[in-house]
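Re: [help] complex structure
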Amino acid sequence: MASGITKSFGGHLALDHVDLAIDAGSVFALLGPNGAGKTTMVRILATLVRPDAGTAAVAGHDLLTDPAGVRRSTSLTGQHAAVDDKLTGQENLEMMARLLHLPRRPARARTAELLAAFDLEDARDRRVGTYSGGMKRRLDLAISMIERPELVFLDEPTTGLDPRGRDQVWGAVRDLADDGVTILLTTQYLEEADQLADTIAMLDHGQVVARGTADQLKSSIGTEVIRLQFGDRESYDRARCQFEPVRADRRLHILEVASNGSAAQVRELLGHLEAAGAPALKLSTHRPSLDDVFLSLTGGEAATTTSAATKELAR
Amino acid sequence: MSLAHAVSDAQVMVTRSTRRSLRDPEAFSTALMLPIVLMLLFVYVFGGALNTGGRYVDYVVPGLIVLCAGFGAGTTAVAVATDMSNGIVDRFRSMPIASSSILIGHIVASLARNLIATTLVIGVGLGVGWRPAASPAGWIAASGMIVLFILALSWLAAAVGLLARSAEAANSFAFVLMFIPYLSTAFVPARTLPSPLRWIAGHQPFTPVVETMRSLWTGHTSTGAATGHEAWIAIACCAAILAIAVTSASWLFRHRTTR
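Output below.
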């Protein structure tokens, strides 16, 4: 539905001719690290930012010529819960319902329905400032559902939530999908895309680097990933230049390589390493995760992703 | 966008902003304490030492009204700046609503807060012996002056709030606005000031506003100018501030939120 979307900020190209096609009623995940352009893409599709080039049909409305139509049939839930901390959950919902021009009484009725549907009835009269992260996001989603939009944008719906909050939000997203709402979500968590999405597009540096279902993406790098543990740095380094690994961790002396999982290939691999003077200490195999796909596509070494994750935690 | 929808959007936003004001106990209680404390301070602590050619309480009430309005404008600037840094404005903008309604909500809440503070100043003033000699028409004219001044200051505060990158930056605006009245005839007559300050006092908008109210309530200005003369200057100043502030706030609102 989107084609050739391009946007740059002050000379930096945030999105480079991005094309997306999302089936009505499906859950689509835009997956990528921080700075990949996910949020910019969502903000463009939600008419908050104008693209430099390209266009899109969102829920049947042209992005550029009918932004009001796009706004009517979509709803955006941003990275930070867009709720009013000083109002109660009920007041937030009623306010939004009134802003969507529901008369007072239907606004109140819809509020009651949504509080029940998103399991917020007990907290209806508490100020949102006292809510947990998961509750705030659920309230955010409930607000998105006041008018049952055809398409919901969820920009990093679980970033910053603890596991419990994350599970609650996942449950709410699944309920929306079961109701037939089309969902476009962005996430930096591969597990989230794996759990929720029918179709995934991986975004890196403003470009789509892969797209397909989670299974298609996983099988794109082979059916198995072989994990090799080396005894010391020297043998690790010798082995490292023999392969194009899916993942490499120099500190722990671990390499992971894609494989078809056959015994013959494993034997060949071990023989190859032996010959190169880099015998493996331990070997295990596992099914590729979306992490493996992502790392193999973006060429990221585990060391760099680990430090990025550490920075994320330190913040 | 039909007019009925625009009115309904504005109503919802006014309710929201009012609720937010009432639920900010710190700012709200300060806003209520300020008129009382300042009145007692100026009348009983400084008032005895100040010679304004009459009872000081009769002199100072209009000054305290503009001082509290300055504080109130600071609160408004902070409220607008806080809102703009919150994701909720993006949500409002992604909804089919009149975008003016968000600012209107802030302005109406600001007017309400300030008029409560003004009423308190007047009430406490009457309590400590202020005896205005205005006719009912004079009261209506003075009230009109107050409303116009607070409206202009509120829009100015909204523009500053939109311009400020943070609530802290917006807060410093309150400090400036609470300082400006001291360089007017709000608390002491201009003739007692050294000449550079006297010049400032004679050429800044707080002076004609204060003098207009003072003259309506006590029958004469402290500058010796006619009531009508001060009133026209005050109205012109407020109208100019209002025009500039409304234009720039509306422009900033569109501009800042489409970043």
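The CA atoms of residues 3 and 19 of chain A lie 4 Å apart.
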